[in-house]
UniProtKB/TrEMBL annotation:
Native source species: Chelativorans intermedius
Name this protein carries in UniProt: RbsD/FucU family protein
UniProt xrefs under InterPro entries: RbsD-like_sf, RbsD/FucU_mutarotase, RbsD_FucU
Catalytic activity of the protein: beta-D-ribopyranose = beta-D-ribofuranose; alpha-L-fucose = beta-L-fucose
One Pfam family of this chain: RbsD_FucU
Keywords annotated in UniProt: Isomerase
Segments forming a coiled coil: none
Length: 150
């Protein structure tokens, strides 16, 4: 355990989050996502796990992970197949975690299922969660932490 760091953030996840740079993508995926095969194609090349619900994992990650303010797609969700405007409960809950971490409403775009898979393959890493609800899959693009003001 470390002070000020959510206990869900294990050493492997903290290593990956620290190693990522501005513009790198992080995928938080549900239990049904083909996480292992996709993770093998990422920059990290192996799957990370946090066995907790997706909203809880997103809150933990976003407690230390800045979102990119230079792009419109820094927060994204996998769209429901055939219903791109439907936002399931798990996505509503993750949206609340994103907004809380940012301290303001923050847009989360929808990405078609297969386009999401392609974005995930280009990501830095994939964290598979214990989320069993469908469409609990998210992409977060890393931003920057500004220097301290003098």
């Amino acid at each position: 355990m470390l002070k000020g760091i959510d206990p869900l953030l294990n050493a492997d996840v903290l290593f990956a989050l620290r190693a990522m740079g501005h513009g790198d993508d992080l995928i938080i995926a549900d239990t049904n996502f083909p996480a292992d095969s996709v993770a093998r194609q990422t920059r990290l090349g192996r799957l990370l796990r946090i066995d907790a619900p997706a909203p809880r994992v997103a809150a933990a990650v976003l407690s230390v992970y800045p979102l990119d303010t230079f792009v419109d797609d820094a927060a994204a969700r996998m769209e429901v197949v055939g219903e791109p405007d439907t936002v399931p409960a798990v996505q509503v809950e993750v949206q609340k975690a994103v907004d809380a971490a940012q301290g303001r409403p923050w847009p989360m775009i929808g990405i078609e299922r297969y386009a999401f898979y392609e974005r995930a393959k280009q990501a830095y890493c994939v964290i598979q969660t214990g989320e069993r609800r469908f469409y609990g899959c998210f992409a977060f693009r890393k931003g920057v932490i500004p220097p301290d003001e003098d």
